[in-house]
């Protein structure tokens, strides 16, 4: 019996991993997909044509980048549901608007007209009864120091050149955002409780925790 069956996780579940930059979403996406034998939906960072430009000049490229991410995530959403689920997704579509677009508009690095155009498009695409929401959102949280350490360790130049205040503000915004999020059931996990790198039993403990969350809340019983 595999881990998915052992802990009674439906084979058609769509689980999205949310959390600030560097917290460990991609690492957990891969580990959970391996453990559950699910497909993955990753953010493509290396092939994103706007990301470097954006980090160089937020004001100029915010709108382009948000439109690009929205299109990419929407295509991924469609792909996951066309397969009939069984996916782990690296970052939710909700964070684009709830964290990034909002933060840049409020900081003045995305102008109000662009923000409104983007928000209208997001709502028309996502906030409809036809848009399938994930079955579960796993929210990864951790201390600011740990997260800054991980951003450093990963070593993406564009992120390392960004002033640390940007990551501090994002960390705070994530806390507010998740406390108000109600798009789908949320399981909060602290990164200090799971060591996917060094603890060989970690993946199974995670799957067990997800399984018991699902049983308790019956979130995936259809
Ligand atoms: N459980 C973990 N323990 C230690 N380091 C980790 C862990 N998970 C991720 N990392 C490291 O932290 C950095 C960021 O992880 P990543 O999964 O790319 O984050 P995200 O996708 O949230 O931006 C990477 O260098 C990764 O190797
Ligand atoms: N919607 C977004 N707006 C701006 N920047 C974004 C958005 N989504 C992701 N990003 C950035 C943040 C990171 O530099 C990379 C990848 O994110 P990660 O959390 O490391 O997966 O893209």
Could you name the key traits of this structure?
binds ligand LDVFA3IR, binds adenosine-5'-diphosphate, alpha/beta, globular, P-loop_NTPase, 222 residues, Rossmann fold, EC 2.7.1.76, single chain, deoxyadenosine kinase activity, 5-stranded parallel beta sheet, Deoxyribonucleoside_kinase
Describe the fold and architecture.
It comes from Planococcus koreensis. This is Deoxyadenosine/deoxycytidine kinase. Belongs to the DCK/DGK family. With about 220 residues, the protein is an alpha/beta fold. The chain has a single domain, classed as 3-Layer(aba) Sandwich (Rossmann fold), CATH 3.40.50. The protein has 10 helices and 5 strands; from the N terminus they run αβαβααβααβαααβα. It has a 5-stranded parallel sheet with strand order 2-3-1-4-5, with helices on both faces. The longest helix has 25 residues. It is globular, with a radius of gyration of 17 Å. The mean pLDDT is about 95. Bound molecules: adenosine-5'-diphosphate (ADP) and the ligand Nc1ncnc2c1ncn2[C@H]1C[C@H](O)[C@@H](COP(=O)(O)O)O1. Ligand LDVFA3IR binds next to helix 2, helix 4 and helix 5.
């Amino acid at each position: 019996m595999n881990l998915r069956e052992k802990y009674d996780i439906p084979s058609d579940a769509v689980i999205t991993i949310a959390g600030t930059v560097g917290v460990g979403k991609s690492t957990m996406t891969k580990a959970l997909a391996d453990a559950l034998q699910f497909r993955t939906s990753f953010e493509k960072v290396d092939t994103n044509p706007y990301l470097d430009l954006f980090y160089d000049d937020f004001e100029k490229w915010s709108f382009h980048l948000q439109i690009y991410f929205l299109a990419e995530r929407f295509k991924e959403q469609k792909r996951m549901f066309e397969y009939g689920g069984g996916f782990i997704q690296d970052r939710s579509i909700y964070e684009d608007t709830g964290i990034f677009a909002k933060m840049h508009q409020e900081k003045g690095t995305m102008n109000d007209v662009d923000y409104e155009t983007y928000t209208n498009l997001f709502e028309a695409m996502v906030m409809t009864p036809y848009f399938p929401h994930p079955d579960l959102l796993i929210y990864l949280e951790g201390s600011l120091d740990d997260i800054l350490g991980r951003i450093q360790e990963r070593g993406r130049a564009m992120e390392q050149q960004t002033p640390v205040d940007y990551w501090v503000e994002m960390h705070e915004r994530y806390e507010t955002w998740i406390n108000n999020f109600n798009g789908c059931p949320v399981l909060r996990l602290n990164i200090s409780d799971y060591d996917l790198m060094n603890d060989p039993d970690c993946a199974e403990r995670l799957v067990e925790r997800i399984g018991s969350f699902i049983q308790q809340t019956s979130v995936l019983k259809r």
